[in-house]
Design a protein that fits this description.
Shape: globular
Order of helices and strands: HHHHHHHHHHH
Number of helices: 11
Number of strands: 0
Radius of gyration: 18 Å
Distance between the termini: 48 Å
Largest sheet: none
Helix content: 55-70%
Strand content: under 5%
Structural class: mainly alpha
Length: 256
């Protein structure tokens, strides 16, 4: 019973961080659970993707396809608090405007948004929109669930494959710990599972370009700042989400 309650606590710790869903009052928040909550990153993505898919499905009953896509995208950002979009903009500003490790990390901590961040987020939103616009209305809800889940799984693997870049900050010590083998496998399995419902096993091929994107981003982060930060995880998820949509479209049209 104690183990179950602990896992529920960890799950809601992650969910309250990754979404706007509040932390239940009947549970006790513990900061040391934050790093372990990363294993529930894909499951949080499943909830976010289900929300996005449900909004699109309901909106598409009454509204044109294009407006339904925009409404789904907008409300999903509200549901997550724009957490990963904010990380993406910080990474664009930091790596676009900084030329040393210290300067990049300093810019990424700045709450102001620069030209690189604005340009990057505009490109990101437009690409997401046209990718989703290119997918049929019948398939889009499932695609949203699979994309949000699997790309959060891939982004979460940064914790085990790379070092945290702000190790000099004692407040970040919880994020320097790697997931255990069991928790890491749980993250992988929950991330891959929704892809199996896309109708064909060939769509598992999507994971190849998606994970390759994470590898390339990880190398880029290592080169400039010696590891990753929370913003890097968010940016990785956003880039991998776009790669997921693009890969699905390519596989659907060209692989039989």
């Amino acid at each position: 019973m104690i183990i179950i309650k602990r896992e529920i606590n960890i799950f809601f710790t992650g969910l309250s961080f990754f979404t706007r869903i509040p932390f239940p009052k009947w549970l006790k928040f513990k900061k040391e659970y934050q790093y372990e909550a990363i294993k529930y990153f894909p499951l949080s993505g499943f909830i976010i993707g289900t929300f996005a898919g449900l909004i699109f499905y309901l909106a598409n009953i009454f509204l044109p396809f294009q407006l339904s896509v925009i409404l789904s995208m907008g409300l999903t950002v509200l549901f997550t608090g724009g957490l990963h979009e904010d990380g993406f903009m910080d990474v664009c500003d930091g790596f676009g405007g900084g030329w040393t490790r210290e300067r990049i990390l300093e810019i990424m901590k700045d709450s102001l948004i620069g030209a690189f961040g604005v340009t990057g987020i505009v490109f990101l939103i437009l690409t997401k929109y046209f990718c989703q616009y290119s997918i049929s209305a019948s398939q889009l809800p499932l695609i949203l669930i699979a994309a949000h889940t699997s790309t959060r799984m891939v982004a979460a693997t940064l914790v085990n494959t790379h070092q945290y870049a702000r190790v000099e900050n004692s407040k970040a010590k919880n994020y320097t710990q790697k997931l255990s083998v069991g928790n890491f496998l749980f993250t992988i399995i929950t991330g891959i599972f929704p892809i199996l419902f896309l109708g064909h096993i060939k769509f598992l091929l999507i994971l190849i370009p998606v994970y390759l994107s994470k590898i390339l981003l990880g190398r880029y982060f290592n080169k400039w700042i010696g590891g990753f930060t929370g913003d890097c995880i968010g940016a990785t998820q956003q880039v991998c989400e776009i790669v997921f949509y693009l890969s699905y479209i390519v596989i659907l049209n060209h692989i039989y």
